[in-house]
Structure formats: C-alpha cells, structure tokens
From TrEMBL:
Gene Ontology CC annotation, any one: cytosol
The entry's keywords: ATP-binding, DNA damage, DNA repair, DNA-binding, Exonuclease, Helicase, Hydrolase, Nuclease, Nucleotide-binding
Entry's Gene Ontology molecular function annotations: 3'-5' DNA helicase activity; ATP binding; DNA binding; exonuclease activity
Official protein name in the record: ATP-dependent nuclease, subunit A
PROSITE patterns: UVRD_HELICASE_CTER
Domain UvrD-like helicase C-terminal: 1-245
Gene Ontology BP term (one): recombinational repair
Length: 654
C-alpha cells in the first residue's frame, strides 16, 4: 500500500497551503504498533520495498543485537567473572565460535562443569575443539582480548570500541547482512554516545557499562541511528502510546488481527480479587481454576478489553485523511472482530473488499544491493574523532562519581530511601493502597503529571503568547482523557500562572525564557571527583533578575525538604556556571489550592556550605556502595511517617 500510495501520484491527502488535495509523500505516513515486539518485521518489509523509514524511539537502538554484543564485550573486559557476557561474545561475530565450541568450553569430557574464562588466563592451554576453525578463532580472540585489557585504561571508551570494531571486522560482518547499513549506523551511534559520555566528564569504563546495561534493561526510548541522512520524508514506525497528541495524513494500524494475551500461568494476582490458583486433580489429571483465579481472570480480561478499546480509539484518531487497517483475512483478533462488527452494524458490509496478496519472496542478496556505507567502511572510514574531548585520566585510586540531583535529594532525606529507589529501583507503591484498583475511567496520576510537564515545556508563554495557548495545549496533549481531568488540569495551570512567581512570565520576552535547562556541574576534591546532573523546569530573566522554578503536579507534601534541597542544587549549579549574583527560586505545587509556592533566594554566600554538604554526602555514599541493605542507615519511624515514605513497611514491618 505504501509504495502504491506514494508512486500513484493520486491526490489522496489534504494540502494545508492550497486547501485542496495533493499526492502522498513517505513523510505523511505513520505505522502504529501496539508494541515494539515485531517492529523488525515491518522494518524488513520497508527495507525490501525501498521505502525510507525511521523507528521513533522505542526499543530500536538498545534492543539491537550489535549494541548488546559490544555491551557484553565491554562488560567482560571490565569484570572477567561475567561468564554470561563472555559466552555471548564468543557466539557473536566478535569471535564467531560454533555452538559445539561453546559446549566444549563449558562442559568437560566427563560431563563436569567448566569455567570458560579459565581458558583465557595467561599460560592457559587451548580448549579441545572438534573444528580447527574454532581453535583458530578462539586463539585469535584470546590474543585480542589481552590487548584490549591492556589498552582499556589508556584509551577513551570510544577509542576502545573503535579498536574492537576495526580489529575484529565486526562492522564489515554486520554491514554485509540485510539491513546492514542500519547495524553499522547503530555502531557509529554508540561510538558517538560514548564520546558524549566522555565529554560530559563522566569517565570510567565501569560507569559507562552500568549506564548502557540500564538502558538496555529499561527500554528507555532511544531511537536507532537515523540512516535517512536527515531527510524528513520517511515513514515513521512508532507505538500507539508514542503517537498520542500527534496527527498524520496517513495512518496504518498494523496487526489488528493479533489476539489478547491470555492468562497462561497457574497463579494469578488481581489487586481487588486477590491471589488465585489453579489446582491439579490427581484423578482426572487436569488443572482446574479456583474461584478467585476465575473471577480475577475475568476481571483482568475485562479491564484489558477496555484498555484495548481506548488504545484503538487513540490509534484511529491519529489519522487526518487516510486510515489503513492492516490485518488478516482468516486469523482475526479482538480489534479486527470489533471493526467487522461495527461495519456490519452500520450496514456497510457491501462496501468492504478484502485483498489478499502473497507474501513478498526473499530477494536474492545480489538484488538487495550493498549499502553505501560498505565502500566507506572498506576504505577505512570511521567516525570523526576531531571533536572528541581528550580528558586526562584521574590519578590512581581517586574515585569518580556521577549522580543526579534527584538521587542526591533522596540520599539527603534518607540513605535507605536512596538504596530502595536508585540501587534496587524498587517500585514506589503505597502499601496501604496496594490492593486498591483504579476504575476504568480513572487516569494514571503519573501519566497526567508527565503530560502536564509536556504542556509546560512546549506551550508558548511569555510576552505576545496567544490568550488560549494553555487551553489549546491541554486539548492537544490530553485528547484521550476525560473532560473533567482536562478541566482540572487547565484550571490548575491557569491558577498557577496567574500569581507569582509564574505570573511574571507574562511580560518576559520569549527569548529570555529557557525550559528544561540541563546542566552538569563538576566538583573536584583532592580525593574525589563528583559530577552532578539535572534539569531545571524553567529559568527566565526579567526586571527582577534571574528566576528558576521547579513545578510539581501535586499538592504540597508534609515534608518538602527533598524538593527544597533539589532547588538549592539547581540554583548552586546555575549560579556557578553563569556567575550570577543572585537567583530567585521557587517550587510550585500545581494542584495545591492554598499555599502552593515555596520560595527561596540563593546568594553566592550560600554556595560554600552547600558544596561542603554535597561533598560529604558523596563521600558517605561512596562508602555505602556495594554494601548490603542492612548497612544502609534509615530514619526513625516517626520521620518516615511524617514524610509518608512508601518504603517504611520494608524497614519497620518485617
């Protein structure tokens, strides 16, 4: 359909300039997926058809195999006891060993378990492989591994990755595969990310690996490398959730024939129904669901159905001119059944035609064509390194720490709180409400907060801003929310911007307003280097000087020390970087009805005490790193209750 729509030349979409119609461009089209699980299927089809495309965030980059391969190798270089990483690298194109070779490395002749890392130690004998090629490849890889280990402390991370790619020929191998240009683009993007990491001042292979693994595990939303050359005329692949608030001339909703995931396990939990089990009947030899399991499964299926209906509504309303529903003629899932029922109820069945087209056969490799980057790679191309910062290595034994403002604020409140939130990454769940379940009409408070921040980040404010700018922005960012929630959000925002300090923005020139101001502040001590990172919500300059505001879409907490500490760190970093004489700061609680603002004026005289406090906190944190949970100090129970800490049950009720 995409090739036909673009190549036909038919005027299928509206033209905002002429008011008429115009032909479709690739950039008019968005493919919306329920999840990114099968996005590579659509990438492959677009690639074979010659249609330019771009994966919009999602799992594309960090979920790609080439990033995982390099991450595994760096992990093993840093920590030789990471056996899983080592075996994964050996099976990858970085080493190229066969499955039989991996078995020989892990299992002895008598069936005893072996440590594969023992064969790379100095003076260790070569393992006995069945294939001569495996022996040669392992010996070569072992020699290279020794070189990389020796070089890791005198090379930057980006240089180390480039050396690995160059010596192993990994880039050439990946480029020779289908979609090879994308694989190579991802490798180059990783090198650039490493270079950016170094230039920010965050040194150390271990820190980079920790961050890279966290990104892979969290699916943070990093797009694959853009190989479209900056051309905006590309088909976009994204999830339906990512498309909220957007509109496209042509929308293709993919895989409407997929079915609802069923409750396949023998145990299930529902927040209201409780814990349900299936039991095994010895006589019949069958599993039978208990009453709680049945009622819980029925509730979960009903709730999932309602969520799928909302999701389908969001997807269909992203289309401005053309909506394409892609499914299957025989296998029909819940979305396709709903659509068929709607068509039948509307009496439009005679208007529907089903088209069946055989799957596109695999093209011979000679017809696919070598990606343009192959020639550049064979000619010795590598990313430009002229802009990479050359940072002198820290003296031996001097620790380096990189930490966010939010993490430091958690530690300032309670080291145990920091441990749960930023080490264990435990979910923030109120134990008193763990069994309450929101109704189908209730929207997630966290999602609302995220949307509010998007509104405040993108809406035109300041002198000359349209009168209805906030209302239009709320309508755009909350299309699938109830009218009441949108009304409450708009009312809260209008109230906040109607009084100080945000009211001052009405007269501020747009050029004097900065939003989501990111910063990294470095503190160097004799025995430590500390890098603090964060982002202030909004900073502006007016007749009263510089002002900084951090807003929270919440009511005022009983204990706001954490928020105020964040505010001081923002102020300290901004004033130090820009040599300000003073800075007016405030936290604005957007849902608070009465006392919604906490203000604070930060002066240069306040900086030394705050700096000393931060350094002392960092020293304490370094001492606690890698310690077990029981050694992280915690506050008194009374303080936990006053703060309404969501983790207090972990500390005091076990």
């Amino acid at each position: 359909y995409i090739k036909w729509a673009v190549s036909s030349g038919e005027a299928l979409v509206g033209d905002s300039k002429s008011g008429g119609a115009r032909p479709v461009k690739f950039g008019d089209i968005a493919i919306l997926l329920r999840t990114f699980t099968s996005h590579e299927v659509y990438e492959s089809a677009l690639r074979r058809s010659g249609a330019p495309y771009q994966v919009v965030k999602g799992r594309g980059f960090y979920d790609s195999q080439e990033i995982k391969d390099i991450s595994n190798l760096l992990s093993f270089l840093d920590y030789s006891a990471d056996t899983l990483a080592f075996v994964s690298v050996l099976r990858s194109p970085l080493a190229g060993l066969s499955d039989g070779a991996l078995l020989a490395l892990c299992v002895g002749a008598k069936g005893d378990r072996l440590d594969p890392a023992q064969f790379i130690r100095p003076g260790a004998p070569l393992p006995l492989f069945d294939l001569k090629e495996d022996t040669q490849r392992f010996e070569t890889f072992r020699d290279r591994l020794s070189q990389w280990r020796a070089a890791r402390d005198r090379m930057t991370i980006s240089e180390l990755i480039e050396t690995i790619i160059s010596q192993t020929g990994y880039g050439a191998v990946m480029t020779s595969r289908f979609n090879g240009e994308q694989y190579l683009g991802n490798i180059f993007k990783l090198i650039e990310l490493a270079r950016t990491f170094e230039m920010d001042g965050a040194r150390g292979l271990k820190n980079f690996i920790v961050r890279l693994k966290a990104m892979i595990a969290k699916e943070p939303g990093e797009a694959k490398a853009d190989i479209s050359g900056g051309d905006e005329d590309v088909v976009r692949i994204m999830t339906i959730h990512q498309s909220k608030g957007l509109e496209f001339p042509v929308v293709i909703i993919a895989d409407i024939a997929s079915s609802i995931k069923s409750q396949a396990g023998k145990i299930m939990f529902h927040p209201e129904e409780g814990l349900g089990l299936q039991h095994y009947d010895l006589v019949s030899g069958k599993w039978y669901a208990g009453p709680i399991f049945r009622s819980g499964a029925e509730r979960a299926k009903s709730e999932q159905t309602q969520e799928l209906k909302r999701l389908l509504y969001v997807a269909m309303t992203r289309a401005r001119d053309r909506l394409v529903l892609s499914g299957a003629a025989k296998r029909k899932g819940v979305w396709q059944n709903w659509i068929d029922e709607t068509i039948e109820e509307a009496g439009l069945s005679d208007k529907v035609a089903t088209f069946q087209k055989p799957a596109m056969p695999d093209m011979p490799s000679s017809r696919i064509g070598a990606p343009p980057l192959v020639d550049r790679l064979l000619k010795g191309y590598r990313p430009d390194t002229s802009s990479s910062g050359k940072l002198a290595p820290l003296p031996p034994g001097i620790p380096s720490m990189q930490i966010s403002v939010t993490s430091l604020a958690s530690f300032s409140l309670c080291p145990r709180l920091y441990y749960y939130r930023h080490v264990m990454e435990a979910p923030m769940i109120d134990h008193t409400k763990a069994f309450s379940f929101p109704s189908n009409d209730e929207q997630s408070r966290r999602e609302t907060g995220i949307r509010v921040h998007e509104v405040l980040e993108q809406t035109q404010i300041g002198e000359g801003a349209p009168k209805n700018a906030l209302k239009d922005a709320v309508d755009e960012k909350f299309p699938d929310f109830s009218r009441k929630i949108k009304s409450d959000v708009l009312k809260n925002l209008i109230t906040a911007f109607g009084k100080p300090p945000l009211s001052a923005l009405r007269l501020a020139p747009p050029g004097a307003i900065m939003r989501e101001v990111s910063f990294a502040h470095k503190i160097v001590e004799k025995q430590m280097e500390l890098i603090i990172q964060g982002a202030a919500d909004i900073v502006w300059l007016d007749g009263n000087g510089w002002s900084l505001v951090d807003y929270k879409y919440s009511t005022r907490p009983k204990d706001e020390r954490g928020y105020l500490f964040q505010l001081k760190l923002y102020a300290y970093a901004m004033m130090t970087a820009h040599k300000m004489e003073s800075l007016n700061t405030a936290v604005v609680y957007l849902r608070e009805k009465k006392d919604s603002v906490s203000t604070m004026r930060f002066l240069p005289i306040d900086a030394p005490d705050l700096r000393d406090r931060v350094v002392n906190m960092a020293r304490r944190l370094l001492k606690l790193e890698k310690k077990p949970e029981c050694e992280w100090p915690m506050r008194e129970r009374k303080s936990c209750d006053e703060y309404e800490c969501l983790f207090r049950s972990r500390c005091y009720e076990r």
